[in-house]
Design brief:
13 helices, binds shikimate-3-phosphate
């Protein structure tokens, strides 16, 4: 499928985005390991999270969904069943890496694979750390990290201080640590999202945090729990980016996750001069959530450096689009991790911006964007990456002139199958509101 968008002058409306993808993977996996039935409300329909549920079925974990988005998972009390076939993580890096941590501690062998994009992504840093804990995890064919085979079993807790920040690695180690003998400690150089820690606490797991170190004592079985998954800030970011540079625009986003470690994009927008009001509703069930009210204004350029990255890692392509709308020079540095996401997001972003007439220099770890306030509609590629497809749909809406055509946008369903529907809803609402104003 291709997506065509036309420039939009103003947007007014409100949206409720799907449940947070990162949190959903974690609560599904913990519910699977728990003793008893857990209830996950607002579980998203995106393909990544559904891949996690399918894999759990292959590991003997039943679930039911009596109404869309309300998923009951019947946990196994820590004992999964050996799968008869390869576990296909499809496009989901989080599924693959967290699963490695879980399977490392289970007394059977299993194979993990994914689609062509996932097969190009690094898994060896996770495998190597889990081998240190005693599991045998090796690529099935020597060339790539995936497919791989995990022969799990008795694990021993270890101390880790990874030299590159990564929430997926930390989470895989904590899942393995839950099943290990002794204590597993992970010390981070930069704080990454702490959804695993919060979900584990919700499931009654005792975790210690001491500065930048989190530790878990092995031999703990999660307790069943009920949770309402907050809206995904990374999906909400698309609508924030749409309203922020369009003067006279306003978008309200309901029930969005407001975990501080995910709010780098909101901070960057505030720095750029966007009008944002955060209305925190609650910190129920371990995660902060609330409403975001965004009003458009003339944006200023920004600088992103390595220390900012974990809190806005998935929003960099969108920030680059906004840099083009701000007059002046914006820089993004310390972001080389983006080259190993669903596609090389640095090259993809730079190429698409250049096609839209923006002057951008590609750097090994980021880019420099010379914003003039103008983007021109163009014919673009998604590179099979959901976030690139959506970021450039927004860029097309923010263009000053000409239509934008984005090829190969089926990938949007990985995280936000309702993106197109929500876009149409917003545009329709905007037209109605403007007609009355
Ligand atoms: C994620 C962590 C981030 C992020 C990814 C989801 C997670 O990756 O880019 O989309 O759910 O833990 P890192 O492992 O690089 O932190």
């Amino acid at each position: 499928m291709n997506l065509t968008v036309n420039p939009l002058r103003t947007v007014i409306g409100d949206i409720t985005v799907p449940g947070d993808k990162s949190i959903s993977h974690r609560v599904a996996l913990l519910a699977a390991l728990a003793q008893g039935a857990s209830c996950l409300r607002n579980f998203p329909a995106g393909r990544d999270c559904r891949a996690t549920l399918k894999i759990l079925s292959q590991l003997g974990i039943a679930h039911e969904e009596l109404e869309p988005g309300t998923v009951t998972i019947f946990g196994c009390g820590g004992k999964l069943s050996a799968p008869s076939q390869t576990l296909d993580c499809e496009n989901s890096g989080t599924t693959a890496r967290l699963l490695m941590g879980i399977l490392a501690g289970q007394p059977f062998a299993a194979s993990i694979d994914g689609d062509d994009s996932l097969r190009r992504r690094p898994m060896e840093h996770v495998a190597a750390a889990l081998r240190e804990m005693g599991s045998a995890i090796f690529p099935s064919n020597g060339e790539k990290d995936l497919p791989l085979r995990v022969s799990g079993g008795a694990l021993i807790g270890r101390n880790f201080a990874p030299d590159r920040a990564g929430a997926q690695l930390k989470s895989a180690l904590l899942f393995a640590g839950l099943q290990a003998r002794g204590t597993t400690r992970v010390t981070e150089d930069l704080p990454t999202r702490d959804h695993t820690e919060r979900a584990m606490r919700l499931a009654g797991i005792r975790l210690e945090t001491d500065g930048s170190t989190v530790s878990v004592e092995g031999g703990q079985i999660p307790k069943s729990f009920a949770v309402t998954i907050p809206g995904d800030l990374s999906s909400a970011a698309f609508w924030m980016a749409l309203a922020a540079p369009l003067q006279g625009s306003r978008i309200i986003l309901h029930n969005v996750g407001l975990n501080r470690r995910r709010l780098g994009f909101v901070d960057a927008l505030l720095h750029m001069g966007a009008g944002i009001r955060e209305e925190v509703i609650s910190c129920d069930e371990g995660e902060w959530f609330g409403n975001l009210d965004i009003r458009g204004d003339q944006l200023r350029p920004f600088q992103v450096q390595a220390t900012d990255l974990p809190s806005l890692i998935d929003e960099i392509p969108l920030l680059a689009v906004l840099a083009a709308k701000a007059r002046g020079v914006s820089t993004i540095r310390g972001a080389s991790a983006l080259r190993i996401k669903e596609c090389d997001r640095i090259t993809a972003t730079v190429t698409n911006l250049q096609k839209m007439g923006v002057e951008v220099d590609e750097l090994p770890d980021g880019m420099t964007i010379y914003g003039t306030g103008n983007l021109n509609g163009a014919e673009l590629q998604s590179y099979g990456d959901h976030r690139i497809a959506m970021a450039f749909a927004i860029a097309g809406l923010l263009a000053s002139e000409k239509q934008t055509l984005i090829h190969d946008t089926d990938c949007i369903a990985v995280s936000y199958p309702g993106f197109h529907r929500d876009l149409l809803h917003l545009i329709k609402d905007s037209v109605r509101e403007l007609a009355f104003s």
